[in-house]
Amino acid sequence: MHPSSLISYYPTYAILDEIVSIGSFKELNIFIDLKNVLQTTYMKHAIENIVESSKSSRYKDTSVFSSLISFLSFHKIYGVKRGVETNFIVFFESGHSYYHKNIDKNYKVSRKIDDLYGLDKKDKDLFFETLQANFKLVDKACNRLPRVSVVQLPNLEADFVPYYLLKRNLIKRGEGIGNVIYSNDHDLWQCLDHDVLIFSKAGKTKKIVKQGTVLSRLFRKETDIPDEYLPLAMSVIGDVGDDVTGVSGVGPARFLQIFEQLTSMTGTMNQLYDNVENKRDIFSFIPESIQNKHLRNVVNAEVSENTISKNIKLVSFEMISRALDNPGSTDMIDKRKIIENIFLHEKQTSTADGMKKALEMAGVFLEEASLDFLYI
């Protein structure tokens, strides 16, 4: 299997040029939602190739790792040609998110891997073992590459990582530095800023998502509601992809109708976050009579079931970030240490020759020069 075949998320140079031109960027922080850009891995031909390759060799198949190296190299070459410095932040999680499951046991409950096209148990186990070996290799090896950082979080959703790094100033930002996130997950729209863009690719459709377009994209209808209200919108209407149940009967159109009245009661998003974090009522007042039945449904859902408060904790990156800032468990302390060890300490890198030898000992044989490009 060709090293680039598992990641079909490649942009064109024209798209990268557009991203760079938006802020006249001379440096790019490229965030890669690894499992999201590796969707091809779960297609029939990829699964069969990975299983058969692992069976026919004393080493497990390393095409996932090799695909990532090729992906990084592609962008490195682009940067060299255009005079743009490139930094890479790869993020992914392993296992179920304790944080989310402790809030709602039904979170992502419907996300189950199917029977993998009829594979028997032995082959399925081999496939998943091979994937885990690749992810471990990504974590260990890529963190020793220059200008590459990998955040693997056990039992915590990693989608919030770009938000946390950017908002908590754990990576360099400033004039001439741009940030682009590779993911189709609309949760990551929470990260958008004047210097933060998202490259999204679905099939042959490639698009750049910019600040100021979030709610219009979510609702597929033009609106001037600020981006920061995305978590509130998702908390009210729900998020089917993550099994977050919203308020019955309130979809995008109804949310737009009640938005101003609702936010007059909840205040700003920061006020809402503060109230949820401190377990206070999220409404500063509740009118004696609420004429709009959809707004009344939202209020009743919160008063009786804490629906909005619970959902805000599930979907908001700011709430997860606050939980990491002030960890209430050793589990969250450990997660914060993982991030701090990567971004608050001097990075240790391996030489190109040393990395090649180590990878060859692990049965990894990369395309010629793909690793060398990352040392330019």
- What is the beta-strand fraction? 5-15%
Number of strands: 6
Query: Mind describing the biggest β-sheet?
Result: 6 strands, mixed
User: Would you identify the CATH architecture of the largest domain?
Assistant: 3-Layer(aba) Sandwich
* Structural class based on helices, strands and sheet pairing: alpha/beta
How would you explain this protein's 3D organization?
This protein is of the alpha/beta class and 376 residues long. It has 2 domains: 13-211 and 346-375, 5'-nuclease (Rossmann fold), CATH 3.40.50; 215-345, Orthogonal Bundle (DNA polymerase, domain 1). It is 46% helix and 11% strand. A 6-stranded mixed beta sheet has the order 3-2-1-4-5-6, with helices on both faces. Strand 5 and strand 6 form a beta hairpin. The longest helix is centred in the middle third of the chain and has 22 residues, at 121-142.
Secondary structure elements and pairings:
Blueprint: H1 13-22, E1 27-33, H2 34-37, H3 44-55, H4 63-82, E2 85-94, H5 98-103, H6 121-142, E3 148-154, H7 161-167, E4 177-182, E5 196-202, E6 205-209, H8 214-219, H9 230-237, H10 252-266, H11 269-277, H12 293-305, H13 307-315, H14 317-325, H15 330-343, H16 352-361
Parallel strand pairs: 1-2, 1-4, 2-3, 4-5
Antiparallel strand pairs: 5-6
Helix pairs in contact: 3-6, 4-6, 9-13
